[in-house]
Specification:
It is built from ten helices and 15 strands. It has 506 residues and is an alpha+beta fold. Helix 7 runs antiparallel to helix 8. The chain is flat and about 155 Å long.
Length: 506
């Protein structure tokens, strides 16, 4: 097992790795998984040598064949072992399984947010497992269909600790907002009238209108409305469905000229016309059946449609991307590997069965697109939850500002608005229609804070070079008592004595 990689080291690459994805560990089954079968190669070599000694006439042939089969079997064991890989990244766990004899490839991946439990076990009954320290790692999700069992993994306890640490760091990074973003949110929340509107989630359209199919059956995917993508079956499925109707059509056209040449006349024309109608209707049926099966992928949903002509079948499965537990792509057989054709399997949270879409072109590429949108959907769901929490807090602040305004404790608005941090959302106003200017700590002096109602005074802040925290509204305090008004002196009153009398002169 290779040690975990640091973010600064060059990343390990695999076919469906994302540009911003860091591979923490690449591992596979323990080397004992293939070395334990090497005695069979040794027996093959010994059998060839023994047959060569028993039959001296063909001894050299048997020895060479025995050695060739032994070497080929050993190389097959090693190649089959090295083809299987397990990648643990900062976003998911990916397992790639390949079988050389069946020409099959299976790629299953589990996002870190879908993992519910990780079990590591070294079987006590296996002496080699205790000696070489390999075992099993079982990654469990909400449904049993999405579980992944990793067999004969070296150091299973370390792999378990790495996945758990990766999960904690991933969840902490998702729930930790940026400091600058927090300041902008607080600045928006302390603005009266800007509470609920500032954090209202924008409407997102996830529905897709009528899908316009391209004429060519060789187009496997094409864009639709609202950023959706439509995937349909491989063109090989269309060829397999329409080749026999096309053969009937071609036979009808050939029979028309052949029967006319034989002199059958109207009878020959009628036979050719019946064959042509049957072949044409059959072709339209098969072509429509092919075009009615497709998959629509939006930013939040996966829609699987299985329809038959004349409304004989109309199945429509809508899967929420954030509820998809695991996505598995399979491609089995030499023909499927050459044509790049495979099957996608979806497991849902809490479900014990798969949703399947068969015979799709480029299953690995479609799987990568689905997992990318799935990550965006879950991230957007987390953002929506944060917005809901912030909207609740903003409602409390809105009620606080309205109550303070009703009591006359809220500073009046300034005549000239002050620039604040650039925000994409417009600044709304209070319910009374008076604009309110929030405090901006980054605005350099001269800056005049809004004064409260008459009878109150607030000291001006000293000029500062560094940003200061937002000020709080000062508590109300009584106005200082005013001095009694002075009365004018009377005309007949004697003048007041001097404060400093002059000394008598000699």
């Amino acid at each position: 097992m290779q040690p975990p990689m640091s973010p600064t080291s060059p990343p390990l690459r695999f076919q469906t790795q994302r540009p911003n994805e860091i591979v923490l560990l690449e591992t596979r089954s323990h080397w004992w998984a293939w070395v334990r079968w090497l005695p069979i190669s040794v027996l093959m070599a010994l059998g060839g040598v023994g047959a060569g000694l028993l039959l001296p006439l063909f001894g050299g042939v048997f020895i060479v064949l025995g050695l060739v089969f032994a070497l080929a079997f050993g190389l097959y064991l090693y190649a089959d072992w090295v083809n299987d890989s397990i990648f643990i990244t900062d976003q998911r766990v990916v397992r790639i399984q390949r079988n050389l004899l069946r020409f099959s490839q299976t790629v299953s991946e589990i996002p870190l947010t879908s993992i519910q439990e990780i079990n590591a076990d070294i079987p006590n009954w296996d002496l080699f497992a205790l000696a070489f320290h390999y075992g099993y790692v079982v990654i469990r999700t909400s449904g049993s269909a999405g579980d992944v069992r990793l067999r004969m993994i070296p150091d299973p306890d370390k792999v378990q600790d790495l996945i758990l640490m990766d999960m904690r760091q991933h969840r902490a990074a998702q729930g930790r907002p940026d400091n600058a973003e927090m300041r902008r949110m607080v600045e928006r929340m302390i603005t009266p009238g800007n509470a609920v509107e500032a954090f209202a989630a924008p409407p997102r359209t996830t529905t897709v209108g009528p899908v316009r199919m391209p004429w060519s059956p060789f187009i496997a995917s094409y864009p639709a409305e609202n950023g959706a993508i439509v995937f349909r079956h491989h063109w090989y499925v269309w060829v397999k469905m329409v080749w026999l109707p096309l053969l009937v059509l071609i036979g009808a056209i050939v029979s028309l000229f052949t029967l006319q040449w034989l002199g059958l006349g109207v009878i020959g024309f009628g036979i050719s016309l019946v064959l042509f109608v049957i072949g044409g209707a059959w072709f339209l049926w098969q072509d429509t059946d092919f075009r009615n099966d497709y998959m629509i992928v939006t930013d939040n949903t996966i829609t699987l449609l299985h329809q038959r002509p004349l409304w004989l079948q109309n199945e429509r499965d809508v899967l929420l991307l954030k509820r998809v537990d695991n996505i598995i792509s399979e491609s089995q057989g030499l023909i499927n590997q050459i044509l790049n054709k495979g099957t996608l399997r979806f497991t849902l949270i809490g479900a014990n069965e798969y949703k399947v879409f068969k015979d799709i072109y480029n299953p690995l590429g479609v799987q990568a697109e689905l997992t990318r949108r799935q990550g965006q959907a879950r991230q957007q769901a987390a953002f929506d939850q944060q917005d809901q929490q912030q909207a609740v807090i903003a409602q409390y602040l809105q009620a606080y500002h309205e109550m303070m305004e009703e009591r006359g404790l809220l500073p009046p608005a300034q005549s000239s608005p002050m620039p604040v941090s650039p925000m994409p959302a417009p600044r709304p106003t209070l319910s009374q229609g008076r604009p309110y200017q929030p405090y901006n700590p980054t605005q350099p002096p001269p800056y005049q804070m809004p004064q409260p109602a008459s009878g109150f005074s607030v000291p001006q802040p000293p000029p500062v070079s560094a940003p200061l925290p937002p000020p709080s509204v000062p508590p109300p305090f009584p106005a200082p008592p005013s001095a009694p008004a002075a009365t004018p002196p009377r005309e007949d009153a004697p003048p007041p004595p001097p404060l400093f009398p002059r000394p008598p002169q000699a």
